[in-house]
Amino acid sequence: MNHHNQEKHGRVIAVQKNRFTIDWEGQELAARLKGSFYEQPSDQWPLVGDEVSFLYNPSGESIIRSVGKRKSLLQRLDPIKTGAIQSMVANVDDCFIVTALNGDYNYNRIARYVSLALQSGARPVIILTKADLCADVERHIREVETLSDKLRVHAVSALQGLGMEALEEYFVPGRTIALLGSSGAGKSTLINAVAGEEIMKTGAVRASDDKGRHTTTHRQLIRLKNGASIIDTPGMRELGVAGAEEGIDDTFSDILVLAASCRFRDCRHETEPGCAVKAAIMRGQLREARLALYQSLGAENRGNRARMKEISKRSKAYQKSKNKKN
């Protein structure tokens, strides 16, 4: 049988424009899309983390024929095209939301990451790094625990080896972990410590502002010796959830996720009964100031109605599928 016309199955580990790298039985293969992909919307194109079938070409680029069914899909609002939703990575089991317990810690930003993870179908796992530098670790753990009953929280110090053994249960064969967090949060140090080898470059953090240099250039999936896979997503600016200091962030995905559970579809989050957004403020999960900013920006009218509906629809569909599973 002709070896190179057989259809093979592999996983996309890097995407750069229209060039793809596939991991197939431990080999890295260069690949491109078959022509009919170009007639489809680009959100159907393969992402890092996708399982794909392809025609193997031992002497050149293999051809990706189709993309497998996704069990989870991490998306963000496109920071350039207002209102557009951009798919980032697929088939993630756990989203590690990595935040250093120094100047990097920001409750609202963590809330947005948690909502991104929950919308994607992955489990949010908050990793509070540099715990050795923080006097009140317990308070931070309690604070982030209020965000959702579906998340987990671990406080660690990769350099001191504190709390690291608790992470071992995530790094098992076949599991995929996406890393979210700003570039100075300690993602690379954390993963190198877990892997026991230098697999991710660490960028020196400038002491003056606690922000790392952007060390990640493109999304990449790294398979660890223990059989788990790590997907590194680029830093904050890339994610469209930059803090206010990097331009007013217009995602508000945390509020949109909450709004999807309001009793009334056109709830204004003022005095209506059954308002999930007001309930979140009462619980301390959402800050009143953030809702006020959202409302003052007129986020519910102008171009955002369609986006609200879309996120609300996804959130409802996700809740439904999850209730089936449970």
Describe the structure.
This protein is α/β, with parallel strands linked by helices and 326 residues long. The protein folds into 3 domains: 6-67, Nucleic acid-binding proteins (OB fold (Dihydrolipoamide Acetyltransferase, E2P)), CATH 2.40.50.140; 73-245, Rossmann fold, CATH 3.40.50; 252-325, Orthogonal Bundle (Ribonucleotide Reductase Protein R1, domain 1), CATH 1.10.40. Helix content is 25%, strand content 23%. It is built from 8 helices and 13 strands. Strands 10-9-8-11-13-12 form a 6-stranded mixed β-sheet, with helices on both faces. The chain has a 5-stranded mixed β-barrel with strand order 1-2-3-5-4. Residues 204-217 and 240-250 have low confidence and may be disordered.
Feature tags:
326 residues; alpha/beta; OB fold (Dihydrolipoamide Acetyltransferase, E2P); Rossmann fold; Ribonucleotide Reductase Protein R1, domain 1; 3 domains; six-stranded mixed beta sheet; 25% helix; 23% strand; globular
